[in-house]
């Protein structure tokens, strides 16, 4: 469903300390991705498709505090490029443009009219769907 909050991100001055805090207080698990200087935060079990198994729950991430200094919520969109255009037309601005997350989709950050940084997420089209779409077009 486009428009729903699907992810959160928390900045940290000390990622190890932050992971230990959230793990001990809430039981969250973390998948550290050192090549991206990022940790996936698992707040809820995942289903076979890699989505939260508990309705209404989301997972998130933890990153080194830098340009982003406050928590970020991420909104699901069908077309990230079109969403960024609408944001700019509505008085917002692009904070960081579209970036591919290989095998998963794309994300970007924007600033709303109040200066808040908010994330965008567009899922990648599953390969089976892309192949059948290509076949429908005679490819």
Helix percentage? 10-25%
Name the poorly predicted regions. Answer: 127-139
Q: Give the C-level CATH assignment of the largest domain.
A: Alpha Beta
CATH homologous superfamily descriptor of the largest domain: 2,3-Dihydroxybiphenyl 1,2-Dioxygenase, domain 1
**Integer count of domains:** 2
Structural class: alpha+beta
Order of helices and strands: EHEEEEHEEEH
Tally of DSSP β-strands: 8
Strand numbers in spatial order across the main sheet: 2-3-4-1-5-8-7-6
Strand content range: 35-45%
CA-atom Rg in angstroms: 17 Å
Overall mean pLDDT stands at: 88
Distinct helical segment count: 3
C-alpha termini separation: 29 Å
Set down the secondary structure blueprint.
Layout: E1 5-12, H1 15-26, E2 29-33, E3 38-42, E4 59-64, E5 72-76, H2 80-89, E6 93-101, E7 105-111, E8 117-123, H3 127-136
Parallel strand pairs: 1-4, 5-8
Antiparallel strand pairs: 1-5, 2-3, 3-4, 6-7, 7-8
